[in-house]
Structure formats: C-alpha cells, structure tokens
Amino acid sequence: MSSSPLVVLMALTSFLILPGGSIQSINPDSVSDLLLRDEVEQAELLLDRQPRTPLTTALRGEIEYRKGNFDKAEALYDEALRADTNTARAHLGLAKLAIAKLKGDQAVTAITRAIELDPKLPLFRLYASEAYAVQKNYAEQRRHLEEYVRLNPAYDADRLAEAKAGIEMIDAFAAEEIARVEGPEAPSPLRFRKTLNLIFSSIMINGRGPYNFAIDTGATQTVLSQKLATDLGLEPITTTIMHGIGGSGKIESKMYRLDEIAIGDLKIKNVPAGTFGDPLLSQLADGILGTAILSDFIITINYPENQLELSRTKPAAGASSETLPAWYFSNLLLIPLEVNGYRGNFIVDTGAVTTVLSHSMASKLGVNENTPGARVDLGIVGVGGFEGVVLRVPNVTLKTPNRSEQFAQVVSIDLKQISKMLGTELSGVVGYDFLQDYQLTLDYYGTEVRLNKPAN
C-alpha cells in the first residue's frame, strides 16, 4: 500500500502575511502589518483607497482568502492574471487554493511561477514546501524549507522555528516513506467506545500496548501523552510549536518518530508524532490519532454503529445523505455552514465534545463579552491549555444546503490563534452534539465530507 500524502510534517500551513518586497505603491508597513495582526477589515479599507491594479486585485484576493471566501479569492486572482500574467501574488494565491484542494501538481506549477517572479520572498518558499509535501516530494519540501530559513523572516519567529524543526524531521526519516500503510485492501471495521462525547479505540505502538487513543478528525497530527512517550523510551528528534484549542492556542511540543502504529488490521510505518503534557488530557487518553493518517482510505465515522469503517471506494450515497465540499488545511477538513443566516467555515471534529462558535461569529449573532449573562465559567480543554473566555450563544441553527441542526445554545471561544495558524477565518467547530447521529464520511483526496443520518 502507498503512504499518505497528507502528513505534512510540521503542519506547515503558513498564515497570510504580506512582508515587504515588490509591493509597488502599497506601503509594506501597512497592509502586511495589518494582516499579520489579523486586522483584515483595516487592511481591506486601506486597499479600497488604492488604485485598481493587478497587484491590488491579487491582494484583495488574499483578503477574501483570509475571510474564507475561496471562490471570490479565486476570481480575483484570475482577474489579476488576466490583467498581468506576471502578478506573483496571484500565482501564490492560486497555489494556496490548489493546496487546499490537494492538487499537488497545480500547486507546484503556480508557486514555481511565483518564485520565478519574486525569488526573495520567504512566504513563497513556505508554500512551495507545502505544495511539494502534497506530492510526497520531501527532498523538494526540504530544499524550500532550507531556503525559507536562509531568507530568515524575522517577522515570523514561530514559523521560522517550525521550518527548522521540519527540516530535522525530514532528515530523521531519511529516504523512508512517511506514514506507509500496510494491511488488507478492505480492512475490518474498527470498533470504538464513546466516553464523555469523545470516541476512543485501542492501538498498538512499536509492538506495545494496547493504548487508549481518541480518534480525532480535528487533530492536525497524531500526538502522545508525554508519559507514554517516556514509557516507550522514545528519543525526541526536535521541538516545535503545536496549535490547539484552549489557553494561548499554542504550546511547545517534542516531536518523535514512531516505527509503527497498529490499528485494527492496519499497520502504519514511520509516523511523526507530537506530545502533550496536560494532566487532564492524560487522564482521558494515552494519545490522539489524527484521522488524516488513514487518508489512503475513504473514512466513515459511523456513530450509530460505534465503528470506524475504511474503504478504497466511496460508499453509495443514501437517500438521506448529503455531500459537502471541503477545504484541506493542515490535515483538517473545513466545510461551509450557515449560522443563523451567516456563512462560515467549520472544522469537522470528532475530538470536540461540543460544537463551538468563534467569538467573531458570535459577535455577528449579537453576543460578545459585554452581553449580559453571556460569559460562562467553563474551561475548554485542549492542547493549548484550558483557559480563555467562554460565551453562551442562545438559539443557534447550523444549516447545510439540505438540512439544519438546531441548538438551544452553543458556546463560543476565541479561535483567532487557530485561524492564524490555518491562514483563513475559522467560524467554529462541529463536534459530538452535531455529529452523534450521523455516519460521517471523510474523503481527503476528493476534499469532500458526507453526512448520512440513518433512518431510526
């Protein structure tokens, strides 16, 4: 069996920044700095005062991309290139869109052209590393990470550290295939247990176990508790930044190499893994298995039957099923949903005990920290900790084109750090209370999510 192309080693999805360089009439300390601080509205206002040029059109496309309006972004990138085929940032934008649809060849072609036009811009090299990772061309991924480090983008210390760690991880695997899957073409369903609105299964690591792992579609990578890593005698390869919900949204994580993960009938060789040290999470699980590691298959999380199903072909659509287009960011699948009439992109997350909204989406619904009775004395546990402001948002309806789910209330948390890491606005996370009655099918290669609610 082949290895998955989806294990981008260090979740190196850059957030949108527009550092100096050939920005023509736009002050590099204006739009770029505003976007670096996630002040998209102010950046948009600034661009509205600029003449309509191929460059400003491409920058408007970048802003639409940041806001999660990918179709609008693509239209603006195309408009910029029709006016001037040498608009480097438009080629960058098309590369990012191709990466988000796992179209590796298109992404490489577009980002290569951007680099030809502006070879000294570090951002281009970072996206080139991602484009080649989709192709599983780790030599080229490493080369562009090295070039990114050489260009030394001082404005982005976290990503610079991640790039250096990414190089070390690639070197640790040498010429071996990363996340190579071995096992039958039609694996047996894997039973899982439901506890505290999460799903768990038993897995073996390096021939030892079994260990209790959460099955998590919302994990950017597989992680172990620090205790388990110590018990297994693993030696850290490097340290990087790991992003997650809760606390500051990011923590340092040691990175390890796992020779083998065994899950049901399958064995996955040469797996990069991070760690978490939160004591509460450690009580719940020995680790978290990110489902992108199984992306060679069509994955169905069958909540009614309490099992995970893997297939080489997509199951036939039932009368009650609905297929949603998805976008791929850092091993996560985002789907568009409507929230009380407002559109947003949501992570499909079996590792979330409840559905949550971002503070920005809650604000659109008229709820913020100053709303009487909105603040909740509640911790949200995640790899980043268990703190932060939590708000209560009443009477929420989440809609797809064909169905809706109503909630008497939904909590809202700060997702700015996660949005920054992904490089696009995240409006929320659909968790157990949304997913619990569905057969949830994930097609990573096809960037699609299917929801099927079996008849009672």
Biggest sheet: strands side by side, in what order?
A: 4-5-10-6-9-8
Number of helix segments? 14
Radius of gyration: 21 Å
Mean pLDDT: 86
Which structural class should the secondary elements be placed in? alpha+beta
The largest sheet is: 6 strands, mixed, barrel
State the share of residues found in helices, binned by percent.
25-40%
Q: Detail the poorly predicted runs.
A: 1-29
Strand content: 25-35%
Beginning-to-end CA distance, first to last residue:
37 Å
Characterize the overall form. globular
Number of strands: 23
Give structural attributes.
456 residues; alpha+beta; six-stranded antiparallel sheet; 14 helices; 23 strands; 31% helix; globular
Structure notes:
The protein contains 14 helices and 23 strands. The N terminus is likely disordered. The chain is globular. Helix 2 packs antiparallel against helix 3 and helix 3 packs parallel to helix 5. The longest helix is centred in the middle third of the chain and has 17 residues. Helix content is 31%, strand content 29%. The protein is of the alpha+beta class and 456 residues long.
Précis, in short:
With 456 residues, this protein is α+β, with helices and mostly antiparallel strands.
